[in-house]
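Example 3.2
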Amino acid sequence: MKQTYETGLQGESTAEAYLHDQLGMKCLERRYKTRSGEIDLIMLDKKTIVFVEVKTRLTGQPGQGLMSVTEEKQRRIARAAVIYLMKTSQLESPVRFDVIEIRPDSVRHIPDAFQPGSMFYR
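Structure, written as tokens:
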């Protein structure tokens, strides 16, 4: 368990560095936690708030991490995102949900990976 946790933290650091250095995003929050769920990274891409799910995989086929972001996981991320936006008075801000897979030999970033649907606006 501890090794998995540490691997996840390292993956999040790698993802944050990639998004900052390669794409010019600014980190607003790391590991934002609510009772509804957790968001690995909250980044700012120009004027868009980006909620990022990071999947770190040391083994397995490329893309398996991306595929592990289930509909239920997406709902939890979206609920946590609404709480973040309410607490920071940014409900009117443009948002998007990205997924990034970190592997020992690559970084795969999927911008706008999912749309939370109507529940996001409740």
